[in-house]
Amino acid sequence: MKNMSIRSFLGIGLLGVDLADDAVRVVELRRRRGKLSCRHCGSAALAAGVMLEGNVEDLPGLADAVRQAWRNSGSACTRVALAMPATALIAHVIRLQAGLPEEQLEILVELEAAQYMPFALEDASLDFYQLGPAPPLASQTQPEIEVLLVAARRASVQRRLDAATAAGLTPVVMDSEALARQAAVAQGGWQALPNNGLAFQLAWGLALHRYAR
């Protein structure tokens, strides 16, 4: 859920940060001759109870681990991409009229979102992705698109942002873990990291935002 644009940051470094229950893992990528590779990576173990099922239970403890993972990586980059776990997200595919201006689309998404969330709209952090043309319906009179609506509790999002900020980093992207992993699998390259790179897959997918994934 990319609530913060990174267009102004493209090309000047981005650190993907995975906040797992057992450890914090970070990856910074570089591209040479069109091929992506790892420039820096690092990790720091988390004490039991700092993260519990994707929830931040000990914010200072998490911030310390983020700072340590960053230092262990050797990266000087301070701009970071984070992600929310699937358990913290509400996702629905909705249909909307095609060709609407972005501002009008945002208004309609908010109206639709209110139908699906078990909490107040003002307590939500919302994002959406245009998936493409919607399959035609018999009653359809004009072209429609499918839109993926993603929402999370604002407080849950903020705790992750606060942990990164307390570690001295600047969050510029908030994604979903599922989409970041999907991007990593599609792109590849993380397999070259230690132990086939699986532990760093999510951080790699987040780091891909530097290249306008």
Overview of this protein structure:
The structure is a single chain. The longest helix has 15 residues. The chain starts with 14 loop residues before the first strand and ends in a 6-residue tail after the last helix. The N terminus is likely disordered. Strands 3-2-1-6-10 form a five-stranded mixed sheet. A three-stranded antiparallel sheet has the order 7-9-8. It has a two-stranded antiparallel ribbon with strand order 4-5. Helices cover 27% and strands 34% of the residues. By secondary structure, the chain is of the alpha+beta class.
Present the secondary structure layout.
Blueprint: E1 15-19, E2 23-32, E3 35-45, E4 51-52, E5 55-56, H1 59-73, E6 79-84, E7 89-97, H2 102-113, E8 124-133, E9 144-153, H3 154-166, E10 170-176, H4 177-187, H5 201-207
Parallel strand pairs: 1-6, 6-10
Antiparallel strand pairs: 1-2, 2-3, 4-5, 7-9, 8-9
